[in-house]
Design brief:
CATH topology of the largest domain: Creatine Amidinohydrolase
Strand order of the largest sheet: 4-3-2-1-5
Mean pLDDT: 95
Shape: globular
CATH architecture of the largest domain: Alpha-Beta Complex
Strand content: 5-15%
Number of strands: 15
Number of helices: 17
Distance between the termini: 24 Å
Structural class: alpha+beta
Helix content: 25-40%
Radius of gyration: 24 Å
CATH superfamily of the largest domain: Creatinase/methionine aminopeptidase superfamily
Low-confidence stretches: 5-12
Length: about 475
């Protein structure tokens, strides 16, 4: 069963380049900024930086494409290198480098301050004026940054150390604003999912004749470039799905392999898709591959059915563990009952990560704020192996976007030392039965989900995952 799919998405399965390049309206940006400004006290401010291009080996050689920080994009909607947004309780001002003839020589004409002000809906000033604007403010809060040079610059501008405790009011306000997506964000997430579907479809078609994993990667990235979009993260496209974050792209592939493809598009505004599919290189599943895959697929469907407002996200993780335990017992891989295996934590040997995370402007949305967004107030990560990697532990609410991504992996490190999962975990495995599944290295199936007042909207519902449908596309 696939779940509810909004009619608006079916109308925009292949958004045009013109549609994707549209900017958010000043009304939307103003509402977003206002949500954050409500938390700022008189005399204080928030300084949100876009960041700067990252140099590879010398300053003029940048990594491809500048991408502004997500908090900046949320409030400004454009990738403006070195720009900074200053928010007080009653005012918003954007500070940008002054256009210069020398920059125009190499990079073309830049937007004027007047044009930016009209597009963004706030006053725009020269970046050189920022220091004097900050002088009268008692505390200038900021989101975290992971650019070392920018950290130093922000500390110098604000006259204070990089101490996140001084920024908590802002961090909470950002979570409050971004946790539930507005209509424009939802539209962008649907676009991202549609683009992601194009990538996966091309990957499936390219697999049968591919000899190396990078050939499938090339096929998947090509339609994104053609649409003017980008990747939301470094993709995982590999016959070695047992390596959870495998970014090696030059693996040879053979007809008996499974390809695990974790690929998500990013719209020009910065909104992310995050979808994983697993399929057989030849289009033909072995008996063991099909059996293991169907266990993971049952877990995905069962967990997705729970994704409704008021439901604890942790219950989706627990449901996944239960369905996987039941399936692996049926396959003979685990001994004992479901309850005994859950108590022994044996499932974590084959499913060591959390079942998903928030999705938005970041593929792990707002994870730069640590667990502040993912974990409800007063909650902390559990010590239990597997549970400790859960990125989201709060009640679901209408407007949240999440991923659900159960898996089955034979990770050598864990199988060599099952005590990672607990003292009794390895005792629950029938090692002889497991050896029959040696052609199943790793399987993950991941969907993007929008929480609605009713049934969950599976944003990635158009991307095939049934075994026969995958086979048909590969062989066609």
């Amino acid at each position: 069963m696939r779940f509810m799919r909004d009619q608006h998405q079916s109308d925009n399965l292949s958004p045009s380049i013109e549609t994707l390049s549209q900017l958010p309206t000043t009304e939307i940006l103003g509402r977003r900024r206002a949500k954050i400004q409500e938390a700022i006290k008189e005399g204080e401010a928030a300084l949100i930086s876009a960041g700067s291009p990252a140099a590879r080996n010398f300053p003029a050689n940048h990594y491809t494409g500048f991408r502004a920080s997500s908090h900046f994009l949320y409030c400004v909607g454009q990738h403006l290198s070195s720009a900074m947004l200053l928010l007080t309780r009653n005012n918003a001002s954007l500070y940008v480098p002054t256009p210069s003839p020398s920059r125009a020589l190499w990079h073309g004409e830049e937007k004027s301050f007047a044009t930016l002000a009209q597009e963004i809906g706030c006053e725009v000033r020269a970046l050189s004026e920022l220091e004097s604007a900050l002088a009268s403010l008692s505390n200038v809060m900021r989101p975290p940054t992971y650019q070392a040079a920018l950290k130093l610059k922000l500390s110098a501008l604000t006259g204070r150390d990089d101490d996140p405790r001084l920024d908590l009011t802002l961090h909470h306000a950002l979570v409050e604003a971004r946790l539930l997506h507005d209509d424009e964000a939802i539209k962008q997430l649907r676009y991202a999912s549609s683009l992601t579907g194009l990538a996966h479809h091309e990957g499936l078609k390219a697999t049968r004749h591919a000899k190396w994993s990078h050939q499938i990667r090339a096929a998947m990235e090509s339609p994104l470039m053609a649409c003017g979009a980008n990747l939301a993260y470094a993709p995982i496209i590999t016959p070695h799905g047992e390596v959870l974050h495998n970014h090696a792209y030059h693996s040879p592939i053979a007809s008996g392999d499974l390809i695990l493809a974790d690929v998500g598009a990013e719209t020009p505004q910065g909104w992310a898709g995050d979808v994983t599919r697993t399929w057989p290189v030849s289009g033909e599943w072995s008996e063991t591959q099909r059996a293991a895959y169907e266990v993971v697929l049952r877990a995905l469907k069962a967990s997705t059915a729970l994704a409704k407002p008021g439901v604890e996200y942790a219950s989706l993780h627990q449901k996944t563990r239960e369905v996987l335990a039941e399936g692996l017992i049926d396959l003979g891989i685990l001994r004992g009952s479901v309850e005994e295996n859950l108590d022994a934590n044996s499932v974590a040997l084959f499913f060591p990560h959390g079942v998903g995370h928030l999705l938005g402007l970041d593929v792990h949305d707002m994870e730069d704020l640590g667990d502040l967004a993912g974990y409800a107030s007063g909650r902390e990560r559990r010590d239990t192996f597997g549970w400790g990697y859960l990125r989201l532990d709060r009640p679901l609410a209408t407007g949240m976007a999440i991923t659900i991504e159960p898996g089955f992996y034979q990770v050598p490190t864990l199988l060599k030392d099952p005590s990672w999962a607990g003292p009794s975990a390895g005792k629950m495995i029938d090692w002889d039965a497991l050896s029959r599944f040696n052609d199943v290295r790793g399987i993950r199936i991941e969907d993007d989900i929008l929480i609605t007042d009713d049934e969950p909207e599976v944003l990635s519902a158009h991307i095939p995952y049934e075994v026969d449908e995958l086979s048909q596309i590969i062989r066609s």
